[in-house]
Amino acid sequence: MRFLFALISIFSLSACQTYVVRDLDLIRPDYLTGYKTKEVFDAEKLNKTLPEARLKEEVISANQMNSEIVQIKGLSVVLPEAKTTVLYFGGNLTHVDENAPHLSKIAASCPVNFATFDYRGYGRSNGQPDALVLKDDSLRIYDHVRAKISGKLVVHGFSLGSFMAAYIAANRSVDGLVLEGSSTYPDELVNAQIPWYFKPFVTVTVSDNLKTISNTQAVSNFVGKVLVITGEKDTSTPAYLGRALFESIPSQEKEYIMVPNGTHNNLMSNPQVQVSYCKLVQ
């Protein structure tokens, strides 16, 4: 989002203009960021937190428009005592090898199995992402995990991943939904980043691809268990957007938590969040 804000700031210097936010302004694969994996998460690292857990590397094959064979890679972790699996979709600029240690700590607090995958062009996965293909991939990933497990399957989406999680909830049966650092529509998220003093000089809209993504629409018929988590001081996805999303969910089994002084990246460390999260996934 900092990249996008820089573009808008520069663009606004040229008087009244319209800026169209495209997929790769919000979705930042590794070739654009220069990301390199520092440390691969493996069974040895897993067992330091979860001694009896089993790790498996996962691969899902798909196609790119140019006929390239894409391998969407991730991992799954199984605990002997767990009866629920959490399918986790990370935020933009996050990767399996950084998310897995974080998920292992959560699993140690309330025993759950978990699975997580890198988006196309991120970390372990090859290919080229865009908004439409990430939606399709989210269903591929869900179907892959659902076919391999028994018991409950809860979908947890953080930031960018919340759009994948909500899309799954609209198109598949899930046993619970967690939306962390989430938003309503991409255009509302983008406009929330524009300082008031730029708004007279620049009009921002989003691409046709991004217009097909709507968390509000995706959850409009959801009646299952759902937890929406926002941070009071989250400048990436302001709390009022998460609250608006929560209000649009018709479920009677929903809970909203705004973490006091919470930022975009520390919400799961809050004790209240941990209690509610464990309650939902059990």
UniProtKB/TrEMBL annotation:
What Gene Ontology molecular function terms does this protein carry?
hydrolase activity
Entry keyword set: Hydrolase
The answer to whether UniProt assigns keyword Mitochondrion to this entry is: no
Q: Name one Pfam family in it.
A: Abhydrolase_1
Is Hydrolase among the key words of this record? yes
The residues covered by the AB hydrolase-1 domain are 112-199
The record's section on InterPro entries has: AB_hydrolase_1, AB_hydrolase_fold
- This protein is called Alpha/beta hydrolase
User: What organism, scientifically named, is this protein from?
Assistant: Undibacterium danionis
